[in-house]
C-alpha cells in the first residue's frame, strides 16, 4: 500500500468532521438555552424581549439609547443578514445601514462592526 487514501476514505473523514461540528453547535445551543433558563428575566430592547442571560451587563445602559431603526438593523444583523439585505428589507440605503452600525458601535462602546456582529448574534440568534 502506498499510504494514500481513497476517495471514499476522504468523504468519510469529511462527513465525520461535519458531524463533529454539528454536535459542537448543538452543545452550544443547549448551553445557551440552559443559561436563558437559569437567569430568569428579560431585557427589553425596543419591542423585543431578550433573555437577561444574553445581555452583557456592560451594554445595558448603551442598549437603552438605541433608536427603533438601530434595533431593527441590529436584529437583522443578529440573524446573519448582510448590509444589502438589511437595506432592502428596511427600505433604506446601504449607507444608512452603515451609519446605524457605526452609531451603535459608538453607543455600545464597541471597537467595531465585528464586535457588534458578535453581540447581535448573541442577542438575536435563535436557539431552536
From TrEMBL:
UniProt xrefs under SMART domains: HTH_LUXR
Alphabetical list of Pfam families matching this protein: GerE
Coiled coil start-end: none
Superkingdom assignment: Bacteria
Keywords: DNA-binding, Transcription, Transcription regulation
Occurrences of domain HTH luxR-type (ranges): 59-124
Protein name in UniProt: Helix-turn-helix transcriptional regulator
Amino acid at each position: 500500500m502506498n499510504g494514500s487514501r481513497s476517495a471514499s476514505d476522504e468523504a468519510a473523514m469529511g462527513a465525520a468532521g461535519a458531524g463533529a461540528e454539528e454536535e459542537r453547535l448543538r452543545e452550544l445551543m443547549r448551553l445557551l438555552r440552559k443559561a436563558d433558563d437559569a437567569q430568569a428575566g428579560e431585557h427589553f430592547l425596543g419591542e423585543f424581549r431578550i433573555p437577561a442571560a444574553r445581555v452583557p451587563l456592560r451594554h445595558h445602559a448603551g442598549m437603552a439609547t438605541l433608536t427603533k431603526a438601530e434595533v431593527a438593523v441590529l436584529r437583522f444583523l443578529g440573524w446573519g443578514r448582510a448590509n444589502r439585505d438589511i437595506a432592502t428589507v428596511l427600505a433604506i440605503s446601504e449607507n444608512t445601514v452603515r451609519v446605524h452600525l457605526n452609531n451603535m458601535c459608538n453607543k455600545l462602546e464597541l471597537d467595531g462592526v465585528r464586535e457588534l456582529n458578535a453581540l447581535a448574534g448573541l442577542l438575536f440568534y435563535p436557539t431552536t
